[in-house]
Specification:
This protein has 5 helices and 4 strands. The chain has about 160 residues and is of the alpha+beta class.
Length: about 160
């Protein structure tokens, strides 16, 4: 991946629906070159998928919470992750090396709904403790961890 690929990715992150023609104008490459580079990034797996960013509140999900989960023993890992992956209200799940095992991002309708989800999680085999952080405001969420263009990629 070079600087031109990173410029293309920045354009796609800003608007994944824009045409290769629009991208080519922004970064001063031919349309065919932009298309070829995008296809290579897709086939290599660098670009996993395209998505939309939704306004959760307009969908009726007024509550976002981050929940720390600790398991009693690693033998519960598979069963716990299988259940979490099935729950549509858990929109992110991270397995961590920390004082707790997992960090979940949860979106739901209300604090009562969050309580239901919390009880469901506490009821999963092997869950020894939880800590829930109620999100007051989503200030930044870029959905991608690619560094800004002004940082030189490590090779």
């Amino acid at each position: 991946m070079d600087l031109l690929d990173r410029k293309i990715l920045d354009c796609l992150r800003a608007n994944a629906r824009q045409s290769a023609s629009d991208i080519s104008k922004q970064i001063h490459l031919s349309v065919s070159t932009v298309i070829e580079r995008i296809r290579k990034m897709e086939s290599s797996g660098l670009i996993k998928s395209y998505t939309v960013v939704l306004d959760e509140k307009k969908l009726g999900n007024d509550v976002t919470a981050l929940m720390e989960i600790s398991l009693e023993h690693p033998k519960y890992y598979e069963a716990f992750t299988d259940e979490v992956l099935q729950n549509p209200h858990v929109i992110s799940c991270y397995y961590l090396a920390a004082n707790f095992d997992f960090l979940l991002k949860i979106v739901c309708r209300s604090s009562d709904h969050l309580e239901e989800i919390h009880r469901w999680i506490k009821g999963q085999p092997g869950v020894s403790s939880t800590r829930t952080h109620y999100v007051l405001k989503d200030l930044k969420n870029i959905y991608s961890a690619a560094p800004p263009l002004d940082e030189t990629p490590q090779e």
